[in-house]
Amino acid sequence: MRHECRSSAMTGPLGRGLTETNKATPKGKMAKEQSIGATSIERSMAVEMPTSNYQPDPSLIVAIERILQRAGYGPLHLGAWEELRANKAYRIAVDETAPRQEQRSLTSIVIKKARPTEMDRYDPDATEWNPAWRFLADWAGAQFLSALPGEGHHSPHFIGGDREAGVFVLEDLGRGESLYDVLMGADPERAEQALLDHARALGRLHRDTRGRQGQYARIRDGLGPQVVQYDAQAWCDLRTALHRLHEGFRTIGITPAPGFDKDYDTLAQAIAQPGPFAAYTHCDPCPDNTRLLPGRVQLLDFERSGYHHMLLDAVYYRLCFPTCGYANRLPAPVAVAAEAAYRSVLNAICPELADDARFGREIVHACVYWIISNDNWMLASAGEEDHQWGLATWRQRVLLRLDLVAQTTEQFAHLPAMGETARICLRRLHQLWSDVPAMPLYPAFMALETAGP
Question: For residue 198, is it within any domain?
């Protein structure tokens, strides 16, 4: 399923309540199967619970063995398979009958495979949208980050892949916690430290990939066509979104502030031409797309990643993880501290980021981009029933993020018409949705709220 800026047809009167069945399709990212009460053993690679009864296709086994042999491992035997995410990611036990001295021995690997749909078979040469698009982007990211010099260690080591078979192999980091697990715990100090480590990991990702777009492009272009070309725009092409915003404004009966379209043009240019802010950007650094290791955070899943405006990642704390099903609120001081931790990694090499005024403007651009691209500001569907996605409903997300974006435009005195329009929308939506509770804090921080000042 592709993510696009889109608006849905009205299905009922404005203000209808939360559906009991929760069958509505989430706005933005494809809904992930949720297992909120499940143990944490595999959220670092996927949100579904692992199963071990998967029966792989024999041709896939042959392709994986061939990848490992080309990488210098073997002879070996693939043992039990553990499904980490349905028809996509697996842990496989490995028995090396004669491990080579110069290679690290393997006891298990993680493989990721293309996930075709009933409508679209996997075709790495397709010139129209195809499941290969995300798979090859994920492959390219993993290979690119593994090839970086220095002490990057941004993600699991890439071992190899088979383009025709639609599979690539990564080192297995083993079982462990993700940022999500810590946020869902009960230790606010540990949760804050994990968020700071996550922010620094994103900062190092951007620091180490600035100026290496050609290296990444050679890997990605060598794997197959990039069917969807959004220039520097990660999830949504802003060139197609303005009329949908206005459609939503008409739906809820408001008029945008004077100068809105001019602000929009400023935003679109800043995102499409990030200049010194261009870097390899994750574009989905959700709490479950991480693995916590001693002293560092590993980033996972690069299906949406590419060279974009790097502050699209940096505002994830300020906007409470705008593309994520596992989204709850962060305390404002924690979000500020995470943003500062991110910035501290890059200030020395990116003078534009060290410039407070420039930094503020770019933060505004990134924030407004996300509430457009993730459909939080696409209000033509405002009359549909609310729906739960992960930890919060769509309406909770809309109300929280419109307020946060308005605050950010005011804080940095930039894109004022868009900020005022966000305030106008908020006032109207509070009239239409009078019974929407505030998005809760992550459980790790709930004790701070109940304790009060």
Answer: yes
CA Rg, the chain, in Å? 22
Cα–Cα separations (whole angstroms), residue 63 to 113, 162, 370: 11, 7, 39
HSE-CB of 345 using CA atoms within 13 angstroms: 24
pLDDT digit string, tens, across residues 20-39:
333 333 333 333 333 322 33
Does 110 fall in a domain? Answer: yes
Q: Both 170 and 188 in a single domain? A: no
Which residue shows structure tokens 């500062």?
340
- What is the residue-wise DSSP string for 311-377? HHHHTTTTTT-TT-SS--B--HHHHHHHHHHHHHHHTTT-HHHH-HHHHHHHHHHHHHHHHHHTSTT
Do the Cβ atoms of 406 and 419 come closer than 8 Å?
A: yes
Q: Give the total number of structural domains in the chain.
A: 2
Burial of 18 (0-12, 13-18, 19+ CB in 10 A): middle
Stronger pLDDT, 130 or 333, i.e. the higher one: 333
Q: What share of the chain is helix, strand, coil (3-state, %, to 5)?
A: 40, 15, 45
Q: At what angle do helices 332-346 and 188-209 cross, to 10 degrees?
A: 30
Distance, CA of 391 to CA of 440 (rounded, Å): 9
Model pLDDT for residues 304-321, shown as the tens digit of each residue: 999 999 999 999 999 999
Q: Are residues 74 and 33 in the same domain?
A: no
Whether residues 258 and 384 fall in one domain: yes
Distance CA 388, CA 34 (A): 11
Residue 246 pLDDT > 70, yes or no? yes
Whether 45 has a pLDDT exceeding 70, the answer reads no
CB atoms closer than 10 angstroms to residue 89: 23
Question: 10 Å Cβ neighbour count for 108?
Answer: 17
Q: Give the residue-averaged pLDDT of 189-209.
A: 97
> Residue 116 belongs to what domain range?
45-175
Report residue 361 as tokens. Answer: 């403007």
Cβ atoms of residues 424 and 431 within 8 Å: no
Do 279 and 339 fall into the same domain?
yes
Q: Which of 142, 62, 68 is closest to 100 using CA atoms?
A: 68
Residue 243 included in any domain: yes
pTM higher than 0.85 for the full model?
Answer: yes
pLDDT 10s digits, 164-198: 999 999 999 999 999 999 999 999 999 999 999 99
- Give the SS3 label for residue 406: helix
Token duo for residue 233: 């725009």
pLDDT of residue 6 exceeding 60: no
> Residue 203 belongs to a domain with what CATH number?
3.90.1200.10
Find residue 329's DSSP bridge partners. Answer: 441
